[in-house]
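Let's inspect one such protein example.
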Amino acid sequence: ADLEAAYSVDTTYTKLRSTAAGAIGSWRRTVDRGARVGGFGNSASKLRGKIINAFNAATQGCGEGSRREARREELMVYLDSAVTELHAAQIAALSAETEAAFSAKLLRLLDGTKDAAPIEDEKVKTAMQKAEFAYAAAVAQLAVPAIGLDGAADVDDMSVTLGDLASKFDESPPAKVLRLNKLTLKAQKNRKSPKNPRSFTPGFHLSGMVRQIGSGNLQGFSSYSAGPHSVTMGYQNDRGTPESMAEGDEPFLRLQPKVHFDIDA
């Protein structure tokens, strides 16, 4: 009879532990993806009650022996440990999301102020209250009161964390960067671009060439400029010998004037 009772207890334990493992495994996959299990607290409480009640009912005829008590305790420890672990993981993820969302909200409020002035205290207070309310509601969905996971301490901790974020926000790197960007943009808008006046500047250039009798073995150039005006003069002895020069040959001095205009519209 004792062997039969022990066999029945062990068989029931194995079966119910497998059932619990199936549900816990499904929840763990969801949590590992970074998501929260919908209605986790209620589902975990129901699973815990269902497994324990099923064990008690299936082993009722086995008496209150030490083996039955030990197996029931093992089942409870397995369930409570797994649920506590999943609860903690979801609370951690929820807390991180809440802190990030609150910081983002403060940035939006700062972006909406004139010249990135400090956010009004009333607006910060309202944002905190909304964040705390949303966090508390989400924590309530995760609560498993039967094993002490009511979430009260988590809500209190988040309230302190949000207050700390709000008090240090103005000196945080994101706030400093946003304020600097807004002030820089304002300065750029206020800076008037210098107007380029229209101008019309005439210039005169004179080119000249002195040519003397010779075989072309001597030449040179010189130039001078003053503002928009310039002069370039050249010299070259390439007119040949007097005997070779014919009537109507090139003149001794050639000048070429040129007028140019510099227009800025």
Summary: The helical segments are 2-32, 40-58, 66-111, 121-142, 152-168, 173-190. The chain has a mean pLDDT of 84. DSSP finds six helices and four strands in the chain. The first helix runs from residue 2 to 32.
